[in-house]
Design brief:
heterodimer; A: about 575 residues; mainly alpha; two-stranded antiparallel ribbon; about 0% strand; B: about 180 residues; two-stranded antiparallel sheet; about 10% strand; globular
């Protein structure tokens, strides 16, 4: 069999092999049970709580959780704005990179606190080492926030949770110290061994074999690359992200990084199964997500390995496949695998340029972000899926004439309203803003000529991709888009902001309201949610919502491009 | 809050500390010839002269202080024209090579603009040209390419590749060697 195919199958199996025990471990962490890291990290947690003045044992209601979440995010927002706008004259800036303008700092700050990591700057020249470290801090805490919110929902899904949903600071700090930190250290060390730099020295210069003078950017990259993958952040140290040979030196590091991308999102499903003692439900959810994932993955790998039809017409051989925007050490299969894993989760790091993917692969990447819950971002992916489950329970309840119940709690009008609004918000943000930018471009192509790097259908795809990526808190891009201008900085900032917090608030509210309701024991009349049939139902709900919402837009972009190249 | 100090400071210092035990102390591994640094092991560099194996086209001009892909869409007519020009130019410099033998990675830009590798096929297609320019037999150069070919990981995973910088250094050494033996 082809070594490229074996490579990606290995990556997926390895992820699964690691995710199951990690899921159990995280379940123990969130339930406050003993784990083998306690002796080392226990004192550290205590220090955090003591210095931060938090009481980790105090139970909170869902409203209090929400308040805690929003308060700390506001504090981080102000802190980050201040640093990014002044870093040019702060220490740790050997390359003399400038401070950011207000609109760019606004975009970058929101991008990093919202776990998006959309980057309208280039790491080598747009940010100092201090700036990079601050952004790295957000890669930890935005991931920790997402995981904490998810833990609250797990807790609320338990049978007799009532009003006591644990302590937010406890979940948050432990997500960071017990899960993200140890894993990041392991990944960072593996990267270091393979040559990823970790230094505070500035640019180096040498004369190449052919006699050209070449500068080389370096920096404290290994630490950041580790957490960017694990926390589904995706913000690269260097401009081209993990396509850069220093961020991702070889096929082995590519495996490590790619496994890291989907590890925690998958593990969290098993965490839920463990905490709720509902293994079958966890496997049902995993099954639905995996079917969706494979439906996006398989055709993408096929398209990339087949090569671009336009290049075929030029007469050269595409023995590897489509190679524009890709690296030889990864090859098309691993590039397509990365492309899909990074978009179904909300990671958004790239090891190949998505703008140069063949037309349909570009579409599958967008679809991954439009669904945004086939695995999804750390924590938030499950929250999005939870919304779809609620909708599916309600619809199937109506279909078979039973009261819609999920885990022994009745689902009523209020929960449904929230779920529907959240499910439609994503669509609304993407389509409304794409329409706005298309309108501006179509009416004044001269003023906005700098926006698009490609003409025709593909140009439209660039704009659609940018807002999809923003709303999904993904952060990858069709990077040909000239997005470092106030219009894109500000609109994407708004989209990221709404696309992050509302989908956390919604599920948290639903779970909180459900938790307070009376528990109805399962009876013969209960709709079973851990069955194949219900899994198919959830999948159908997702497919219908996404297809109906996005098909017209996709038909104007990638689908039209595909047929025009036939 | 405390998290700032910890994740900005302590985690960074910890990784920095571990880096001191890593190759080149985390400063990036360099490649030297005769004691002079000629490149970074992981980053590709521009090779456009006929006496060297070409590296891939780069949207960043192999500038290690800025990385970039072309971000050209697959249907972009300007881009397709550019690829066509690259093919024509390659055929002028490599007489006797047929169009359908040229691997596409030699005429398409990489993702990072710093791709250090080409496929073994892309190296072999250039052997004839280099043999003529350097007056070395083709067999010797083919052997050199084979010796510098890295198999897929564990022989099983991913792609086979040739590091262009290392191959070209070896090529220079081969020339000196034959000059001495004459």
């Amino acid at each position: 069999m082809n070594t490229e195919i074996i490579g990606i199958v290995t990556m997926f199996l390895l992820t699964l092999l690691l995710a199951i025990p990690l899921g159990r471990y995280m379940g123990k962490v969130y339930q406050g049970e003993k784990t083998w890291l306690d002796p080392i990290l226990g004192p550290l947690d205590k220090l955090f709580f003591k210095l931060g003045g938090a009481k980790p044992d105090r139970d909170m209601t869902w409203q209090q959780h929400l308040l805690a979440l929003l308060t700390i995010n506001l504090v981080w927002f102000l802190f980050s704005m201040a640093i990014l706008m002044t870093m040019g004259s702060l220490p740790l800036n050997p390359d003399g990179n400038p401070s950011m303008t207000a609109d760019l700092a606004f975009n970058t700050t929101i991008s990093f606190i919202s776990n998006t990591n959309l980057q309208h700057y280039s790491g080598e020249s747009g940010v100092s080492y201090l700036g990079q470290l601050v952004l790295m801090l957000f890669q930890f805490i935005s991931a920790g926030i997402g995981m904490a919110a998810c833990a609250v929902v797990f807790k609320a899904m338990k049978e007799k949770a009532g009003d006591k949903l644990g302590n937010f600071y406890n979940y948050f700090i432990k997500s960071c110290t017990r899960v993200l930190l140890p894993l990041s250290i392991v990944v960072a060390v593996l990267l270091l061994i393979n040559g990823t730099p970790m230094t505070f020295k500035g640019k180096d210069q040498f004369i190449s074999l052919q006699g050209d003078t070449v500068s080389v950017s370096r920096g404290p990259a290994a630490a950041m690359v580790a957490i960017k993958q694990l926390g589904t952040n995706g913000g690269g140290f260097f401009g081209v992200n993990s396509a850069h040979p220093l961020e991702n030196p070889n096929y082995f590091t590519n495996i490590i990084e790619n496994v890291s991308i989907i590890l925690i999102p998958i593990a969290l499903i098993f965490t839920m199964g463990f905490m709720l003692k509902k293994r079958r439900l966890a496997w049902m959810i995993f099954g639905v997500m995996t079917v969706g994932f494979l439906l996006l993955l398989v055709p993408s790998v096929y398209q990339e390995m087949k090569g671009s039809p336009a290049i075929t017409r030029l007469g050269v051989t595409q023995q590897l496949g489509s190679m524009e925007g890709k690296e030889v050490r990864f090859g098309p299969a691993a590039s397509a695998y990365w492309g899909i894993t990074t978009t179904v989760t909300s990671n958004g790091s790239v090891n190949a340029m998505h703008d140069s993917f063949t037309a349909l692969t570009g579409m599958f990447c967008m679809l991954g972000m439009m669904v945004n819950s086939f695995y999804g971002g750390v924590g938030v992916g499950f929250l999005n899926f939870y919304v779809y489950i609620i909708i599916a329970v309600f619809i199937s309840g109506l279909m078979v004439g039973r009261t819609p119940e999920f885990l022994g709690k009745k689902i009523e009008a209020k929960e449904m309203k929230i779920a529907t609004i959240i499910a439609l918000l994503h669509t609304f943000l993407i389509l409304a803003f794409t329409a706005l930018s298309s309108h501006l471009y179509a009416h004044d192509p001269k003023t906005y000529a700098g926006w698009l790097n490609n003409p025709g259908y593909h140009g439209f795809s660039e704009m659609l991709y940018e807002y999809t990526s923003s709303s999904a808190n993904n952060g990858s891009g069709f990077e040909g888009l000239g997005d470092a201008v106030p219009f894109w900085n500000i609109t994407c900032g708004i989209v990221m902001l709404l696309g992050r917090y509302l989908p956390i608030i919604g599920p948290l509210a639903i779970a909180g309201i459900l938790a307070k309701k009376k528990y109805v024991p399962e009876s013969a009349g209960t709709l079973k949610t851990d069955t194949f049939t219900f899994g198919a139902m959830v999948f159908a709900v997702i497919a219908i919502v996404v297809a109906l919402s996005f098909f017209p837009a996709l038909a104007l972009g990638p689908i039209a491009e595909y047929f025009s190249m036939k | 809050m405390v998290t700032i100090i910890f994740f900005c400071g302590i985690y960074t210092v910890l990784i920095l500390g571990i880096a001191q035990a890593a190759p080149a102390k985390g400063n990036g591994v360099t490649v030297s010839v005769n004691g002079k640094v000629v490149g970074y092991a992981l980053e590709g560099q521009s090779f456009t002269q006929d006496k060297y194996f070409y590296s891939r086209p780069s949207a960043a001009g192999y500038n290690g202080a800025g990385s970039a892909g072309s971000n050209k869409g697959p249907s972009n007519p300007d881009y397709l024209q550019q690829v066509k020009d690259r093919i024509d130019s390659f055929m002028v410099h490599n007489p006797g090579v047929k169009r359908e033998q040229i691997p596409s990675e030699l005429v398409t830009a990489s993702g990072s603009g710093l791709d250090p590798d080409i496929s073994p096929e892309a190296a072999k297609i250039q052997v004839k040209r280099i043999a003529v320019v350097r007056s070395i037999t083709e067999d010797k150069i083919v052997a050199l390419v084979d010796a510098n070919t890295e198999k897929p990981l564990l022989g099983l995973l991913g792609t086979a590749k040739v590091n262009v910088l290392r191959l070209n250094i070896a090529l220079d050494e081969l020339k000196q060697h034959t000059a001495f033996s004459k």
